Amino acid sequence: MTTEPQSPKVSAPELDDRGLPRGSRFHPADEVTPREAAAAMRGAGGGGGGGGGGGVLIVDVRLRSEWDTARIEGSVHIPLHELEQRWDELETQGKEVLVLCHHGRRSLDGMHILRSKGIAGAKSIAGGIEVWSLAVDPKIPRYQRQGEKCTRL
């Protein structure tokens, strides 16, 4: 594991009523908020902040070092650079497919890959696991990444 000891706390952004950082852009046709994703998982029998709700599939496209540092229970890990080749490993039948990364940028790329493969309803989780930690489950650690190295905040 490439995780280092915790660094000094970095201030968290102020969240708006949607649970997103104030002033952040949100595109409902392509994204769900972390709060919406968590509610969908609870409604699908996934319980609390976990990731494996019966009707919801979270595809985590972050690097292995990020996955090892922080993850949503029940999510499926396929790094973005492998998604094009491994997308067919996903069991998507009858599930809402949500793509997760650190801040919500790579997950948009992952969403586009999955849509190009016929998973038309795939969406990105806006703000990624960073906002998930702030708006849904503070037990999931926040971190900074530099290359392959992750440092918990």
Per DSSP E runs of 2 or more residues, the count of β-strands stands at: 8
- Largest sheet, described in full? 5 strands, parallel
Strand line-up in the sheet with most strands = 2-6-5-3-4
Q: Kindly estimate the percentage of residues that lie in beta strands according to DSSP.
A: 15-25%
Radius of gyration: 15 Å
The average pLDDT score comes to 91
The percentage helix is 25-40%
Shape designation: globular
**How many angstroms separate the termini?**
17 Å
Stretches with pLDDT under 50, minimum 5 residues: 47-51
Instruction: Give helix and strand order, one letter per element, not per position.
Output: EEHEHEHEHEHEE
Give me the secondary-structure category: alpha/beta
Total number of helical segments? 5
Topology at a glance:
Blueprint: E1 3-4, E2 31-32, H1 34-43, E3 56-60, H2 64-69, E4 76-77, H3 80-86, E5 96-100, H4 106-116, E6 123-125, H5 128-135, E7 143-146, E8 149-152
Structure description:
The chain has 5 helices and 8 strands; from the N terminus they run ββαβαβαβαβαββ. The protein is α/β, with parallel strands linked by helices.
How do you describe this structure in short?
By secondary structure, this protein is of the alpha/beta class. It has helices at 34-43, 64-69, 80-86, 106-116, 128-135, and strands at residues 3-4, 31-32, 56-60, 76-77, 96-100, 123-125, 143-146, 149-152.
